[in-house]
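Technical annex B. To support the medicinal chemistry partners, we prepared a structural model of the target in complex with cytidine-5'-monophosphate, based solely on the information shown next.
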Amino acid sequence: MLNPVFVAIDTPDLEAARKLAVNLSGHIGGIKVGLEFFCANGVAGVLELSQLGMPIFLDLKFHDIPNTVAGALRGAMTAHPSILNVHATGGEEMMKTAVATVEECAVKMNCKKPLLIAVTILTSLDSADLHMLGSFDAPKTQVTRLAKLSQDCGLDGVVCSALEISAVRKVCGNSFKLIVPGVRPEGNEMGDQKRTLTPKQAIENGADYIVIGRPITSAADPIAAAQAINSTLLI
Ligand code: C5P
């Protein structure tokens, strides 16, 4: 199978990000950069990483009114990512506007449309956190509801935790893309992640892509850490 691992390179340091990506290329399926990298380096930094030839997941998790998200997506599209995302909790109109905007941009730019993905509930939140936010459904119920709404709005898939994959698959089917962060190889620190499983369990449960940051990027030997994860996935 194609390597489903996107490495989350969370650093503001472009040179460090580039070096890590160069070292890991051949051992990973793609690079994920998010707010920490983007706030420091912008579209130019993403374009520099994309020269390495790996797919880029630009994880900016837009969450604003429809018009603002549309404008932000137009800017993000100039970085030519393979995957872009918004928060499902931005609502139906925002997500439909996002879908239309990305489709329009791809036509204008004459490029392949990136996957547009919705973040459901962050993997750093558990039911106690959700209660505090006034939301009393179990994470799985909320994630599944948001996934269905995202699918109805025309998005290509969602970000969810490994614990919700089968519930989302039941409702959204097999072609809906599931991107799973918050995975931890056996024995690794959880850090701020709360809804986690191992990479192997995430793939067995049906994730299309898994996002792994610190277990690889903070390892003494990131290549060995990536290879160890790959071997559990039989890659
Ligand atoms: O270091 P770690 O493996 O926890 O990194 C996970 C990455 O996935 C981070 O870059 C984080 O921003 C991202 N992410 C997440 N939970 C989501 C969506 C994205 O942890 N729901």
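Notes passed to the chemistry partners:
Residues 5-232 form a domain with the TIM Barrel fold (CATH 3.20.20.70).
The first helix runs from residue 14 to 24.
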